[in-house]
Each structure stands twice: as structure tokens, then as C-alpha cells.
Amino acid sequence: MDAISRQAYEQQLKRSWWLLVVRGFLLTILGFYALLNPTTDNDLITVLVGIYLLVDGAVMLLLSLFGRKANPGARTTQIRGLISLVAGAVVITAPAFAKTVAVYVAAAGLIVVGSMELINGIRKRDSAETTGSTIAVSLLLILTGFAIATLPTFTSEAVIRIIGLFAVPIGLYMLIYAGRLRHVIKALQAAS
Q1: How would residue 185 be classed by pLDDT, with cut points 50, 70 and 90?
Q2: Between residues 179 and 10, which one has the greater pLDDT?
Q3: Is residue 81 helix, strand or coil?
Q4: Which of 29, 71, 98, 190 matches a 20 to 30 Å C-alpha distance to 155?
Q5: Contact assessment for residue 90 and residue 105, using Cβ atoms and an 8 Å cutoff
Q6: Secondary structure of the chain: what % helix, strand, coil (to 5)?
Q7: What are the strands, taking DSSP E only, across the chain?
Q8: What own/partner pairs with CB < 8 Å and gap ≥ 24 does 182-186 have?
Q9: Which of residues 78 and 14 earns the better pLDDT score?
Q10: What is the mean pLDDT of residues 10-17?
């Protein structure tokens, strides 16, 4: 890695590691809530999912804007962010509609987002920011989407439990990965 691209890479890491913390924290909280209270209030869970999608979309757009020159996957990240924002807006502005088609919207969203993450992971598989676990999480998202799409007759409680079941480990992984990323940043700063 030449000096200019290394500096751009370091700057991108410094500016964006905390965004992963925000996404991981929100996803973990949403997941635990969905697991612990699947029947209490489906409207509240619907709104929480919508808020998560909005925040996630905004984070992805911010991430794509930081270090656009150093990130060859910025366009994919922007598209992913826009899809997440649109899905969040639909869920929040039309919750009855969202609940009716939530299974298919969630399934399609997971498949599309997982596919985009997988493409980025494969494209960057030799870089420091992609690990085998990143690709594994992408595959888990895709498989979850297909599982939800093929089992639409589940009650909303079951769908909420499935969302919680996958949201917690993915959110925790994001938090752990953000911590590792923070250590890499400190090591890079010490080496400079």
C-alpha cells in the first residue's frame, strides 16, 4: 500500500469506526427487545425496525461519503443506504402496510443487503477491512432473508423472534468488530 492510499485508509478508519458501534448497538438492542417481548406490541416493534432502518441507511450514506476516493465500494454502500432509508420510511409512514408485507420486505431487504455486503466482501477479500467473518455475516443475512421469505405463514410473533434471533449476534459482531477496528487504528497511529 503506498503512502497516500495508506493515509486515506487510516483517515477513513478514524472517521467511520464509531458508525459501526452505533449500528451494532441499535441492532443488538432491537434484537434483545424482539426476543424478550415478541407479543407485547407489534406496532412498537414495527416502528423500532423502521427507526433502525432509517438510522442504518443514514449511517451507510455517511460511511460512503467518508473517503469516497479510498473506498471502491462506496457506490454499493450508497445504494444499500438508500434502500435502507426507503424501507425505513415505508415502515414508519405506513405501518399497517408494512406489517402486511413485512415478511417479504424484510426478506428482500436482508437478501439485497446481504448480497451487496457479500459482493463488497469478495471484492475486498484481500484487504484488512474484510475477514472471513464479514463474508459469513453476509451469507447469514442472505440465508435469513430466504428463510423468512419461504416461511411467510409464521405468525408475526415468530417473525419477530427470528428478527431478534439474528439481530443480536449480528449486532454483537458489529460491536466486537468495531472494537477490533479501534485497536487497528491505534496500532496504525503508533506506527506512524
Answers
A1: confident
A2: 179
A3: helix
A4: 29
A5: yes
A6: 85, 0, 15
A7: none
A8: 182/17, 184/13, 184/128, 185/10, 185/13, 185/14, 185/17
A9: 78
A10: 71
Residue 94: per-residue pLDDT: 82
Task: With cut-offs at 50, 70 and 90, classify the pLDDT of residue 125.
Answer: low
Hey, what long-range contacts does 178-187 have (CB within 8 A, 24 or more apart)? 178/17, 178/18, 178/20, 178/21, 178/24, 181/13, 181/17, 181/20, 181/129, 182/17, 184/13, 184/128, 185/10, 185/13, 185/14, 185/17
C-alpha cell at 173: 459482531
- The position carrying cell 454499493 is 76
SS3 for 142?
helix
**Dihedral of CA 63/86/32/141: which sign?**
negative
Neighbours of 125 (CB within 10 A): 12
Please compute Rg for the chain using Cα positions.
Answer: 17
* Number of Cβ within a 10 Å radius of residue 36: 9
Segment 125-130 mean pLDDT: 59
In angstroms, the CA 170 to CA 168 distance is 6
